[in-house]
Automatic annotation (TrEMBL):
SMART domains in the record: GGDEF
Cross-referenced Gene3D superfamilies: 3.30.70.270
Residue ranges of the TM segments: 49-68, 75-95, 101-118, 123-142, 154-179
PANTHER family: DIGUANYLATE CYCLASE DGCM-RELATED, REGULATORY COMPONENTS OF SENSORY TRANSDUCTION SYSTEM
Name of protein: diguanylate cyclase
NCBIfam families cross-referenced by the UniProt entry: GGDEF
Cofactor: Mg(2+)
Enzyme class: transferase
Keyword Transmembrane helix tagged: yes
Pfam family, one: GGDEF
Stored CDD domains: GGDEF
Catalytic activity from the UniProt record: 2 GTP = 3',3'-c-di-GMP + 2 diphosphate
Length: 353
């Protein structure tokens, strides 16, 4: 039974792997251009059947290209399949195996796996293999029906080989780019908070643990700031969650702008942020927190109706100690934050002993 959240099993196939359909369009353009070149080439070589086959091929690619534009991917793939299979078959039977038309069939192997479900791809692969082998065996027993001069045959072979090289290179480069981009996106999704772009709690914990290990070795000071927007619930209640989200984004931007590049900043909870400041004593961290607080106060916060809103932040500061772990350092900063709230908010408090 499928769960409401698991969409992929029910997702229409044409909507999956959108990049593949993009590259299929580009392949249609390239293949049609190659076929135009073939039309003239085979006329020159005195092989009119093969020349006119290319006119039909170009027409098929144009229809396939337009079908891809309308998301009729099944139709497009069928046309491309039919074109390559018939064209390669005719090329082989008319001028011989040595013309290199069989290489085009090999280009389908990666495309099969991307464009079909696994079971269908395996069946199509078996069919393709059988067709390839059958054509090879056939040409073992019969002579080409419309042979061309050996020099011309070599020219056609080199042309086909070069086209297949170029197309394979393009496809390989495309897949590499796609996989790299997907990896980058996954890493970003796994490490950052999607609303603010700051580190998420899990990744921050990992980074801070590493920072603290360094501290244990070299003894350089590390300070912790816990910052929490004041009366954020009231902002949500009065102006809506959308504005609340925008405030969170802007607060994150302001915190980032006021701290140094080497400081680690995360969205730690709903409207709570954690900043870890390497090589920083508690007094300097307090000054940084004050800078953030003042920048937030002086920022021109407006509701969609233009009304001015007061946004303030409270902060608690602690400094890492030799016998600390991450939790104990944060909970001292948390207690200081709690005091800021108790003492009227919009203020920075330091940890007490
Ligand atoms: N818009 C928006 N609101 C959020 C998000 N995450 C948490 N919140 C809201 O943040 C509010 C936090 O409220 P409280 O914990 O009561 O704190 P507060 O109103 O800021 O009060 P003090 O911290 O005591 O000043 C809740 O209403 C949450 O719904 C978010 O991603 N977007």
């Amino acid at each position: 039974m499928s769960h409401p959240g698991t969409t992929s099993a029910r997702e229409p196939f044409r909507e999956r792997r959108p990049q593949f359909w993009q590259v299929a369009k580009r392949c249609c353009q390239i293949a049609a251009s190659v076929d135009v070149a073939f039309f003239f080439l085979f006329h020159l070589l005195g092989s009119p059947i093969l020349a006119w086959v290319n006119v039909v091929s170009v027409a098929m690619y144009v229809v396939a290209y337009r079908a891809l534009g309308r998301q009729q991917n099944g139709l497009a793939i069928s046309l491309i399949w039919a074109e390559v299979i018939i064209h390669a078959g005719l090329g082989i039977v008319l001028i011989g195996w040595e013309g290199g038309f069989h290489y085009y069939l090999l280009m389908f192997i990666p495309a099969l796996f991307v464009s079909m479900r696994l079971r269908a791809a395996v069946i199509a692969l078996a069919g393709l293999w059988s067709y390839y082998v059958a054509l090879h065996l056939l040409m073992w027993f019969i002579e080409p029906l419309q042979p061309i001069a050996p020099g011309a045959l070599l020219g056609v072979y080199l042309f086909n080989l070069s086209v297949v090289f170029a197309m394979f290179s393009y496809l390989s480069f495309f897949y590499l780019t796609m996989v790299t981009a997907a990896n980058r996106k996954l890493r970003r999704m796994a490490t950052t908070d999607s609303l603010t772009g700051l580190f998420n709690r899990r990744h921050m914990t990992y980074l801070v643990e590493k920072e603290l290990a360094r501290f244990q070795r070299n003894g350089n000071p590390v300070a912790f700031l816990v910052l929490d927007i004041d009366h954020f619930k009231a902002i949500n209640d009065q102006y809506g969650h959308e504005l609340g989200d925008r405030v969170l984004e802007d607060v994150a931007g302001i915190i980032k702008a006021q701290l140094r590049t080497q400081d680690l900043i995360a969205r730690w909870g709903g409207e709570e942020f954690l900043a870890v400041l390497p090589d920083t004593r508690i007094q300097s961290a307090q000054a940084s927190a004050e800078r953030v607080r003042e920048a937030l106060m002086t920022h021109d916060w407006r509701a969609p109706n233009g009304e001015r809103i007061d946004i303030t932040i409270s902060a608690g500061v602690s400094e890492f100690r030799r016998d600390d772990d991450l939790n104990s350092a944060i909970s001292r900063a948390d207690r200081a934050l709690y005091r800021s709230k108790e003492r009227g908010r919009n203020r920075v408090e330091l940890e007490t002993v």
